[in-house]
Amino acid sequence: MWDILMVIVCVALIILSLLQSGKSEGLVSALTGQNSSLFKQTKERGPELVLSRITLGFAIAFFIIAVIIRMG
After folding, report:
1. Residue 59 carries which DSSP code?
2. Per-residue pLDDT band at 41 (split at 50, 70, 90)
3. For residues 46 and 9, what is the distance between their CA atoms, to the nearest angstrom?
4. How far does the chain reach from its first CA to its final CA, in angstroms?
5. Are 21 and 49 in contact (CB under 8 A)?
6. Looking at the 3D structure of the chain, how many domains does it have?
7. Where do runs of H (alpha helix) occur along the chain?
8. What does the pLDDT look like over 3-34, one tens digit per residue?
9. Where are the transmembrane segments (predicted)?
10. How many secondary structure helices (H) and strands (E) does the chain include?
11. Do the beta carbons of residue 13 and residue 59 sit within 8 Å?
């Protein structure tokens, strides 16, 4: 049962990670010297915030299930 749940959580975590927008623009522009927005404080809003929180929830579930599987 835990194994099946672990597979479902893993697949969901991969899909949610791929759906999130890229945050590497700041690093690339800092290295190339372009207009850098690396130090701007931008907060996630709307769907991005919800997606980020769901991903965090699945990540926590992943680690809890991994510990349960390892103990049992």
Report:
1. H
2. low
3. 23
4. 12
5. no
6. 1
7. 2-19, 25-32, 47-71
8. 999 999 999 999 999 998 766 555 555 566 56
9. 50-69
10. 3, 0
11. yes
